[in-house]
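Per-residue structure
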Amino acid sequence: MTNRIEISRDIAASPEEAYAAISDVTRMGEWSQECHACEWHDGFDGPVVGAIFDGHNRNDEFEWTTQGKVIEAEPGRAFAFECSMRDFHFSTWGYRFEPTETGCRVTEWSDDLRPESVLEFSKKMSGIDDRTERNRSTMSHTLERLAAALEK
Protein backbone atom coordinates (compact mmCIF):
# COMPACT_ATOMS: atom_id res chain seq x y z
CA MET A 1 0.00 0.00 0.00
CA THR A 2 1.44 3.40 -0.95
CA ASN A 3 -0.19 6.53 0.34
CA ARG A 4 1.32 9.81 -0.89
CA ILE A 5 0.81 13.14 0.82
CA GLU A 6 2.07 16.43 -0.64
CA ILE A 7 1.99 19.88 0.94
CA SER A 8 3.35 23.02 -0.74
CA ARG A 9 4.16 26.50 0.51
CA ASP A 10 5.61 29.56 -1.15
CA ILE A 11 8.62 30.97 0.71
CA ALA A 12 10.40 34.28 0.16
CA ALA A 13 13.82 32.64 -0.21
CA SER A 14 15.74 31.20 -3.12
CA PRO A 15 15.41 27.50 -3.96
CA GLU A 16 19.10 27.14 -3.03
CA GLU A 17 18.54 28.67 0.43
CA ALA A 18 15.52 26.47 1.11
CA TYR A 19 17.38 23.38 -0.11
CA ALA A 20 20.39 24.17 2.10
CA ALA A 21 18.17 24.44 5.19
CA ILE A 22 16.15 21.26 4.55
CA SER A 23 19.03 19.08 3.36
CA ASP A 24 21.03 19.87 6.52
CA VAL A 25 19.24 17.16 8.46
CA THR A 26 20.99 18.23 11.67
CA ARG A 27 18.60 21.21 11.61
CA MET A 28 15.41 19.13 11.20
CA GLY A 29 14.47 19.69 14.84
CA GLU A 30 14.12 23.41 14.05
CA TRP A 31 11.29 22.71 11.60
CA SER A 32 9.65 19.42 12.55
CA GLN A 33 7.07 18.79 15.29
CA GLU A 34 7.92 15.09 15.39
CA CYS A 35 11.57 14.67 14.40
CA HIS A 36 13.41 16.56 17.14
CA ALA A 37 17.01 15.68 16.16
CA CYS A 38 19.06 14.07 13.40
CA GLU A 39 22.72 13.21 13.06
CA TRP A 40 24.80 11.85 10.19
CA HIS A 41 26.37 8.41 10.60
CA ASP A 42 30.15 8.22 10.77
CA GLY A 43 31.68 8.90 7.39
CA PHE A 44 28.90 11.26 6.31
CA ASP A 45 28.62 14.96 7.00
CA GLY A 46 26.20 16.24 4.41
CA PRO A 47 23.48 15.54 1.88
CA VAL A 48 24.90 13.23 -0.79
CA VAL A 49 23.18 10.23 -2.31
CA GLY A 50 23.89 7.23 -0.10
CA ALA A 51 24.50 9.25 3.08
CA ILE A 52 22.89 7.74 6.18
CA PHE A 53 21.53 9.53 9.24
CA ASP A 54 19.50 8.76 12.35
CA GLY A 55 16.27 10.66 12.98
CA HIS A 56 15.01 10.87 16.57
CA ASN A 57 11.25 11.24 16.80
CA ARG A 58 8.86 12.08 19.60
CA ASN A 59 5.10 12.16 20.13
CA ASP A 60 4.28 13.01 23.75
CA GLU A 61 5.79 10.15 25.79
CA PHE A 62 6.48 7.97 22.73
CA GLU A 63 10.02 8.09 21.29
CA TRP A 64 11.62 6.16 18.43
CA THR A 65 14.61 6.39 16.10
CA THR A 66 14.59 5.79 12.38
CA GLN A 67 17.39 5.55 9.86
CA GLY A 68 17.36 7.78 6.81
CA LYS A 69 19.24 7.12 3.58
CA VAL A 70 19.57 9.97 1.09
CA ILE A 71 18.30 8.90 -2.36
CA GLU A 72 18.19 12.30 -4.08
CA ALA A 73 20.30 15.40 -3.46
CA GLU A 74 20.10 18.09 -6.15
CA PRO A 75 20.90 21.51 -4.65
CA GLY A 76 18.08 23.97 -5.27
CA ARG A 77 15.88 21.29 -6.86
CA ALA A 78 15.21 18.15 -4.81
CA PHE A 79 16.11 16.29 -1.62
CA ALA A 80 14.70 12.86 -0.68
CA PHE A 81 15.43 10.02 1.70
CA GLU A 82 14.15 6.58 2.62
CA CYS A 83 13.15 5.91 6.24
CA SER A 84 13.78 2.52 7.77
CA MET A 85 13.56 0.87 11.14
CA ARG A 86 15.24 -2.45 11.81
CA ASP A 87 16.03 -2.73 8.07
CA PHE A 88 12.34 -2.29 7.15
CA HIS A 89 11.87 0.56 4.63
CA PHE A 90 8.50 1.99 5.67
CA SER A 91 8.39 5.45 4.06
CA THR A 92 10.09 7.82 1.67
CA TRP A 93 10.19 11.56 2.28
CA GLY A 94 11.18 14.31 -0.10
CA TYR A 95 11.20 17.98 -0.95
CA ARG A 96 10.99 19.77 -4.29
CA PHE A 97 12.12 23.37 -4.74
CA GLU A 98 10.75 25.46 -7.61
CA PRO A 99 11.59 29.11 -8.30
CA THR A 100 8.76 31.64 -8.13
CA GLU A 101 8.66 35.38 -8.73
CA THR A 102 9.03 36.04 -5.01
CA GLY A 103 11.32 33.17 -3.98
CA CYS A 104 10.42 29.51 -4.26
CA ARG A 105 7.70 26.95 -3.76
CA VAL A 106 8.70 24.13 -1.45
CA THR A 107 6.73 20.90 -1.74
CA GLU A 108 7.17 18.34 1.00
CA TRP A 109 5.96 14.85 0.13
CA SER A 110 5.80 11.51 1.88
CA ASP A 111 5.04 8.00 0.66
CA ASP A 112 3.73 5.69 3.40
CA LEU A 113 4.85 2.20 2.36
CA ARG A 114 3.68 0.26 5.41
CA PRO A 115 1.63 -2.86 4.70
CA GLU A 116 -1.59 -3.33 6.67
CA SER A 117 0.13 -6.01 8.76
CA VAL A 118 2.32 -3.44 10.58
CA LEU A 119 -0.20 -0.63 11.10
CA GLU A 120 -1.25 -1.75 14.59
CA PHE A 121 2.38 -2.11 15.71
CA SER A 122 3.12 1.34 14.31
CA LYS A 123 0.24 2.86 16.30
CA LYS A 124 1.46 1.25 19.53
CA MET A 125 5.04 2.36 18.96
CA SER A 126 4.28 5.99 18.05
CA GLY A 127 0.96 6.70 19.74
CA ILE A 128 -0.35 8.00 16.40
CA ASP A 129 -3.71 6.55 15.33
CA ASP A 130 -4.05 8.29 11.96
CA ARG A 131 -0.63 8.60 10.34
CA THR A 132 -2.01 10.28 7.21
CA GLU A 133 -3.65 13.11 9.15
CA ARG A 134 -0.68 13.42 11.48
CA ASN A 135 1.75 13.72 8.54
CA ARG A 136 -0.46 16.28 6.81
CA SER A 137 -0.48 18.39 9.96
CA THR A 138 3.22 18.08 10.75
CA MET A 139 4.23 18.74 7.15
CA SER A 140 2.29 22.01 7.13
CA HIS A 141 3.93 22.94 10.42
CA THR A 142 7.40 22.09 9.04
CA LEU A 143 6.92 24.35 6.02
CA GLU A 144 5.56 27.18 8.19
CA ARG A 145 8.56 27.02 10.50
CA LEU A 146 10.96 26.79 7.56
CA ALA A 147 9.38 29.89 6.02
CA ALA A 148 9.55 31.78 9.32
CA ALA A 149 13.26 31.04 9.63
CA LEU A 150 14.17 31.84 6.02
CA GLU A 151 12.04 34.96 5.70
CA LYS A 152 13.61 36.77 8.70
Observations:
- The first strand starts at residue 3 and ends at 11.
- Helices lie at 15-23, 28-31, 119-126, 131-150.
- Residues 3-150 form a domain with the Alpha-D-Glucose-1,6-Bisphosphate; Chain A, domain 4 fold (CATH 3.30.530.20).
- The chain has one domain: 3-150.
